[in-house]
Amino acid sequence: MSYLYKWILFLPQVFVFVKSGSCMWSKRKQIKLIASLRGNKLLKDLPQEDLLKLLSEMEEVVWPKHTCNINKDRTFYYFHFLVSGRLKVYQIEQNTGREFTFFLLGNTDAFDILCLLDGYEHNVYYEAIDRVVLLSLPMERMKIWVSNHPGVNKNLLPYMSNQMRILEEYASNVTLVDISTRLARLILSNINKESRELELINDLSNEELANLIGSTRAVVNRHLQEFKNDGIISLGRQKVEIKDIDLLLLKANKNGASAP
What we know:
InterPro entries: cNMP-bd_dom, cNMP-bd_dom_sf, Env_Response_Regulators, HTH_CRP, RmlC-like_jellyroll, WH-like_DNA-bd_sf, WH_DNA-bd_sf. This protein is of the alpha+beta class.
């Protein structure tokens, strides 16, 4: 996606508010949304009754694919749980268009945790990689839920700890590790432990992969071709499949990376 085209997508009309309050949803839809909330990393310990109460305070919001949010009011005044789709959290250098991607959020994630905890505006942008469906509620209401439900409060710490580890690993890799190893570690960290399939990044463009490891599209493309020639992966149309995880580990194990 070109820099100019991406900025065209920074428009205020990207949000589609579907419904608000559990009484507005069919029973079947309620069951689906409750299942999604139950799978969220922050809400996994809440009982069914509390999940239903929480859902009654929420609105369903849709972000169309490839749309970007620079309206920080939506992330400062509202807390969001991902129901489906992937969301990129990133920063951009406006003079050059260069990007750095902090995280890719999926359907077990929530945001913005920093706004929830410290009450300050978070200077990042969000882009919908897919069509993204969110369940949102006012930030002040979410703070009350955290205060009144120790289980949610308890889950915040490991969630934040995991995000800090991701950033710490990136800082270490970009300073100490060559790009081939960074790419191998990125792929390895996104392999499902049970299915051994590549998830979350499997269909990203080379440019998006580059933004995750501090590189460029051309360099990432070259290393992916090397991985393919070495029998580590196969490449389809914007799709990466793992062929030999042991060889991938050899690429990534300079500092003791382990198999998923």
